[in-house]
What does this fold into?
Amino acid sequence: MAMSVFHRITGTALYGGTFLVAVWLVALASGPRAYDTVAWFFGSLIGRAILFAYTWVLMHHMLGGIRHFIWDAGYGFDRDRRLGLARATLIGSITLTVVIWAIALLVR
Amino acid sequence: MSQVDNRQNTALSMRTPRARVKGLGASGHGAGHFWLQRLTGASNALLMLAFVVIIALMAGRTYPQAVALVSHPLVSIILILAVVSVTIHMRLGMQTVIEDYVHSHGLKFAALIANTFYAVAVAAACLYAIIRVSLGGLA
It folds into this structure.
């Protein structure tokens, strides 16, 4: 139940987050000055915190969606599987977020 | 011998006489919403994995390098697909949230319109920018 509501909350956060994607792309199309300003913001501490949170929310919503696909297919309704899926979504999203950031920081 | 106008009051309802005769309500459309939400959910899952890689590659790039990456045909096409898939998905998702939680008729109507405006505006801005960068001449 709580995780289902959380799927809507993460979806709503991502909904607002697409505005940031639009700002980033439009800045890129506008020229170096606009792009450098946006790149500076996303490189700052607050910007990185937003991107990190965004990554986790995105991964959580993605895994939550896969959980819904499993339910749509008619599986995973009993209590143990439900709790297992909820736990897997939470642990999986945190793991994926850490892995993505570790790779992104190591590759650079 | 005046004909009786037995249509519904169109000032109160936008349903056509034919829709009333068929009496199907929203059927035929509800499943479309459900299916498109799942379909774009599946395409989002694939496209977001590529999107995360693209964003990670963008970090620390100078402007000409960033333009070069986004204007690569594969990157441009993935970004265009992602924007279309995501904006359709988020519009449908927010529509469901509005319909579930906003019960005042006027507010719900306004919120549903604003939802579509926002999704289309985000899509247009992103697509314009991707195509503008892809066509070259920026850096």
